[in-house]
Amino acid sequence: MFSKTCEYGIRAVVYIMTQSRQGKKMGVKEIAAEIDAPEFFTAKILQALAKKNVISSGKGPNGGFYIDKDQEDLKLIDLIIAIDGDRIFTGCALGLKYCSSSNPCPIHNEFKVVRDLLEKTLSEKSIKELAQEVVSGNATLARFA
Amino acid sequence: MFSKTCEYGIRAVVYIMTQSRQGKKMGVKEIAAEIDAPEFFTAKILQALAKKNVISSGKGPNGGFYIDKDQEDLKLIDLIIAIDGDRIFTGCALGLKYCSSSNPCPIHNEFKVVRDLLEKTLSEKSIKELAQEVVSGNATLARFA
DNA sequence: GAATAAAAAGACATCCAAGTCTTTTATTTG
DNA sequence: CAAATAAAAGACTTGGATGTCTTTTTATTC
């Protein structure tokens, strides 16, 4: 469904959000350990997100990644689009270049229903809500059993 | 959403179905041209499907790919699983190894709703229905505008 | 200002999906 | 049986996603 980059990215950003609530900035090493993801790869992903202003970062001692006030209303869909683009929401399920309601592939209409639901679901969920689920112990971010 | 292999595979099998209704067997060259897919790659995909008995094939003159009576009730979901496996229906959206209703990732429940709809949609659609849409001119299989 | 700490940048490596091509095998037809 | 035809098998190449590591830049602290 999503790329590995996106999977790690979502987990990392949700984790950062759980810590930013307390004003903490997090280093890549701890983030990667917490979400059980490759450290350098996670760094690359987070740096790209910081460059796009989806999250924030600071260098040097006491530096790290965090989410500041004007970023904290981030919706899950915005994060996904920032990483993977909108292909999953707009591309044809059968890979047709010119597939639309007026020139549909054989499953265009059925897929539209599923995709609209996906888009609605991802639009309604904020990263903050996901972080809250983790903080309250109702959800997990790591791979461990 | 699906791999390229799966996209080409679905298009190819739907096209084969449109022809098998008339008892015709189709060669790879014509199939690939009809769905605008790479010829040798399409051959590889169809050979794998034939090996799994999802479709049928015959060698030599008058040979080609076709769908016989006991294969014609094929559902779209069966074709997808034969090519891509069931990862899309069962894997965690965030890539967690141990994600379940009792140990969920933060979007497990919301995703389940979307995925269940996807699975239902794909289970209800038969390849024959999709082929009918193409035959009746209501849908297309090629990339052209 | 020197030491330290952390992200930023970017080079490099690895893996797998995607795609290509050649050779072999099976079937049909004259 | 010989020629022709088409799938089957499998070797090979390519490209992009994934992953690793080193060097550079920036900020903090003493």
Description of the molecule:
Two copies of one chain form a homodimer. The first copy, chain A, has 145 residues and is mainly alpha-helical. Helices cover 53% and strands 4% of the residues of chain A. Chain A has seven helices and two strands. The first copy, chain A, has helices at residues 4-20, 28-35, 39-51, 76-84, 87-90, 108-124, 127-135, and strands at residues 56-58, 64-66. Chain A has a two-stranded antiparallel sheet. In chain A, a hairpin with a 5-residue loop joins strand 1 and strand 2 (64-66). In chain A, helix 2 (28-35) crosses helix 3. Chain A is elongated. The relative contact order of chain A is 0.17. The A-B interface holds A 1-2, 4, 7-8, 10-11, 14, 76, 88, 91, 93-99, 103-108, 110-111, 113-114, 117-118, 121, 125, 129-131, 133-134, 138-145 and B 1-2, 4, 7-8, 10-11, 14, 76, 88, 91, 93-99, 103-108, 110-111, 113-114, 117-118, 121, 125, 129-131, 133-134, 138-145. The structure holds a DNA duplex (30 and 30 nucleotides).
Which descriptors would you attach to this protein?
homodimer; 145 residues; mainly alpha; two-stranded antiparallel sheet; 7 helices; 2 strands; 53% helix; elongated; DNA-binding
Number of helices of chain A: 7
Residues in helix, % of chain A: 40-55%
Order of helices and strands of chain A: HHHEEHHHH
Radius of gyration of chain A: 17 Å
Q: What is the makeup of the main sheet of chain A?
A: 2 strands, antiparallel
Mean pLDDT of chain A, to the nearest integer, reads 96
What is the number of beta strands of chain A?
A: 2
User: pLDDT below 50 for ≥5 consecutive residues: which ranges of chain A?
Assistant: none
Cα distance, first to last residue of chain A?
Answer: 22 Å
- The fraction of residues in strands of chain A falls at under 5%
Q: What strand line-up does the widest sheet of chain A have? A: 1-2
Instruction: Identify the quaternary structure here.
Output: homodimer
Name the largest protein-protein interface in this structure.
A-B, 45 and 45 residues
- Assign the structural class of chain A, choosing from mainly alpha, mainly beta, alpha/beta, alpha+beta, or little secondary structure: mainly alpha
